Amino acid sequence: TTTLIGLLKTARLLRLVRVARKIDRYSEYGAAVLVLLMATFALIAHWLACIWYAIGNAERPFMKNKVGWLDALAEATQEYYYANNTGGGPSIKSRYVTALYFTFTSLTSVGFGNVAPNTDAEKIFTICVMLVGSLMYASIFGNVSAIIQRLYSGTARYHTQMLRVREFIRFHQIPNPLRQRLEEYFQHAWTYTNGIDMNSVLKGFPECLQADICLHLNRNLLNNCSAFEAASPGCLRALSLKFKTTHAPPGDTLVHKGDVLTYLYFIARGSIEILKDDVVMAILGKDDIFGENPCIHTTLGKSNSNVKALTYCDLHKIHRDDLLDVLDLFPEFYDSFVNSLEITYNMRDVSL
To answer: Which CDD domains match (predicted)?
Structure first.
């Protein structure tokens, strides 16, 4: 009865179909899937070991010549069965470990041979185990190399892109100071974005979903800046589509003196210094704003200072034309924005 119940429990193996579906669904989580595959393999080996033991235990009382694998184990361990099948033999632990050892060696096609089938039933079952093992190699371990590659795909992409940057530097003979700035910018930008081009990703989504994503990415700026407090949800969505994020390593010059002021900058992280004739005019940090107010000045102005990053900086910027277009679409927000916008440092050169 116990053996029959044990065999009926093998129906639980049908649950592996659901496990396989989950493996396919969560295949992007490489490490977790790798562990799950190994656990699935061990579970199958466990159930097959139980069947292997059940076959040997069921056959033994009816055999005249004790040639089954359990008798071979008893001979090897010198823990013999009693006469007339009244008990004795190897311990339960020894039988289970040996059965599990046999199924693992059979499934992995190692087959050391120290545990081998002797009866017809054992040989038939061993053939089935070999077939299952070949299928498992195709369906489970065939994915292991792909999973491992996926685990290191981020590192591989980083080194590939860095190699392109260095080839560009070498081909165009970029001088050392500029070369260092290029590499530092690339490393900082990769740390922030993990090599994901947000614009190319967003292009694959409808505009309404793009607005929701951009609204989420720019939520801290839109919630913390007083200039956007009176903006309607539709206005915020339109603004979020226009914002761009830029990064700067320490020492990088964001704006040079005499540059046309086409963008309004909002500092999200880090600190910068404003330099005018090598004199520090101001040091700005998180939530500060620099540039010029495009609503006040109808013509493009030029920068009166240099802007240099003191630390690793992340900045949100919006083009003046894009900002004015949004304000034209939402005229009820125009006056509130103009009155609430507090530019920390106005960079417009009034002498021109």
So the answer is: CAP_ED (cd00038)
